[in-house]
Amino acid sequence: MLEPAKGTYFYLYLILDIFSREIVCWEVWNEESVEHTGQLIQRATMAQNIMRERKIPFVLHSDNGSPMKGASMLETLYQLRITPSRSRPRDSNDKPSTEAMFRTCKYCPDYPVKGFTTLDSSRGWVKDFVDWYNNKHNHSRIKFLTPHQRHSGQGEAVLEKRNQVYEAAKAKNPERLARQTRDWLISNEVWLNPEKQEKELYKIGI
């Protein structure tokens, strides 16, 4: 939620791909509603071309806000063949990737700490932030790729080039770089809550 001029609020609707950390669709409105949420999800499915035949089901994980629990919202998801998933009750930490993105947003150097004066000004700021976040931000959780590099499939090639540079530097100066070079391998398996997943596997003895 973005805080505008005193006494009113603007709401940031946003869909984040947890595999790539790319913001795939967003909008800012001055109210929360099922209609705005449904429109955003439909826009996202069209923009990402996910209406095509697919083997892996899509899951939309969200908080327990009323716009995400409405009957018309659920019907929209079912029509788009998207499985709804929501936060566990009284657990505010089961969306770490989203929370991290919002932290990055709020701690941007140019974030307007005194709020936005108009809906259009808030939309303009978010537009610039999303462009920077997707295309210029080297994300630490995805080996310092930009989310767009990861999302568009360029990531492995970029990381391979980095690895070649590191190996060449080590070969040139073996005494200086006696240890292993940085690991630029990246997993193609991503969990919503990796730490909790590991704990669950430990509990059942896997």
CATH homolog superfamily of the largest domain: Ribonuclease H-like superfamily/Ribonuclease H
Distance between the termini: 40 Å
Helix content: 40-55%
What is the radius of gyration computed over CA atoms, rounded to a whole number of angstroms? Answer: 20 Å
- Biggest sheet, open or closed, and with what strands and sense? 2 strands, antiparallel
Shape: globular
CATH C-level class of the largest domain is Alpha Beta
What's the average pLDDT? 82
H-E string:
EEHEHHEHHHHH
Q: How many structurally independent domains? A: 2
Describe the structure.
- α1 packs parallel to α3.
- The chain has helices spanning 34-47, 66-69, 71-79, 96-106, 119-135, 147-151, 155-172, 194-203; strands spanning 11-16, 23-29, 58-62, 82-86.
- Helix content is 43%, strand content 11%.
- The strands form 2 sheets. Strands 1-2 form a two-stranded antiparallel ribbon. It has a two-stranded parallel sheet with strand order 3-4.
- The longest helix is centred in the C-terminal third of the chain and has 18 residues, at 155-172.
- The radius of gyration is 20 Å and the shape is globular.
- With 206 residues, it is α+β, with helices and mostly antiparallel strands.
- It folds into 2 domains: 11-138, Nucleotidyltransferase, domain 5; 147-203, no CATH class.
- The chain has 8 helices and 4 strands.
